[in-house]
Amino acid sequence: MSRTPEPSAASLSAEQVAHLQSWIHKTETMQDLVARTAAAGLSATLDRDDAPAQDGDSLPPLWHWMNFLPMARQSLLGPDGHPARGGFLPPVPLPRRMWAGGRLQWQADNPLRIGERVERVSRIASVDHKVGRSGELLFVLVQHSYRNARGLALTEEHDIVYRAAAQPSDPVPQPTAAQTQAAWKREITADPVMLFRYSALTFNGHRIHYDRSYVTQEEGYPGLIVHGPLIATLLVDLLRRNAPDAVLTDFSFKAIRPTFDLHPFTVLGEPQDDGKTIKLWAHDHEGWLTMQATAKIR
Fold first, then answer.
1. Which ranges of 4-132 does DSSP label H, i.e. alpha helix?
2. Which residues, including other chains, have CB under 8 Å from residue 275's CB and lie 6 or more apart?
């Protein structure tokens, strides 16, 4: 009879957790210009046949993730390729971090547009520490609001999860079988070139997306990890390909299981009976659910 794994011991002391929680309510304000070049680059990376982007065009949903990028000096990067911890985000010492999900709401009458200047105000909403059978976790919730000259355009909640280093004795999470039939379906080959291009467009130096020896030897994964935001963007892109006139007002997504570059994966969508809700999800080559999402349109 198999034995249920015991919860792991915490490596973060109560004092360390309290220090990290002192970042709650910390804010940061940034301004950026929505550039045509970045939009053209992402269109190519998603293998779209779009007309050349022009100033004044509406920015497609989730493409704002190419803005407000961390431009840390090379000497200030950590060993994982991310900027050294501290500053706006708390300096969590747990080595593995993941963009675990998020929730977004667009002001449909005020889209972000290419060529305009946008202000983002960010706030640390919560810092939660948990220890369970899967190990030690620290969750950071960041809230963003985006404004242009016309006012509020977009609000976003961003879930970041920090984890302890992988251990041989770690329990293997039970995968969830995904529905494999849907009204909309597209197979994606996320090879190292696609991952490199998306990393370049988002100025993401995290080595798990391009450094195979690092991700396999240091973080214990079998291959390069497909960016969670890229999968989310591909889910919304699936919606855009199948309902090009729809206006996205709400989108929520949750990463369930890592996706690796070793095999193609599939993005799927199923419009619901209300005519406004679309269920979106992704599964890997074995049919395991890797991301689930819900979109609202008008």
1. 14-21, 36-45
2. none
pLDDT in tens, 148-180: 999 999 999 999 999 988 777 777 778 999 999
Q: What are phi and psi of 251, to 5 degrees?
A: -150, 130
Other C-beta atoms within 10 Å of 111: how many? 18
pLDDT in tens, 174-213: 899 999 999 999 999 999 999 999 999 999 999 999 999 9
For the chain, how are helix, strand and coil distributed in percent, rounded to 5? 20, 35, 45
Report how far residue 106's alpha carbon sits from residue 17's, in angstroms, rounded to the nearest whole number.
34
| 3-state secondary structure (DSSP) of residue 69 | coil
- Dihedral angle of Cα 254, 258, 263, 266, to the nearest 10 degrees: -10
pTM of the predicted model, to two decimals?
0.93
Sign of the torsion angle spanned by Cα atoms 12, 17, 20, 25: positive
Indicate the SS3 state at residue 132: strand
Alpha helices in 188-243 (DSSP H): 192-201, 212-217, 228-242
Q: Which residues contact 58 (CB under 8 A, 6 or more apart)?
A: 111, 112, 113, 114
For 238, the 3-state DSSP assignment is helix
Q: Identity (one letter) of the amino acid at 164? A: A
CA distances from 26 to 7, 65, 125, 186, 282 (A): 31, 21, 8, 40, 34
pLDDT of residue 11: 85
Cα–Cα dist 130/12, whole Å: 10
pLDDT over 80 (residue 5) = no
Closest CA to 171 of 138, 218, 135: 135
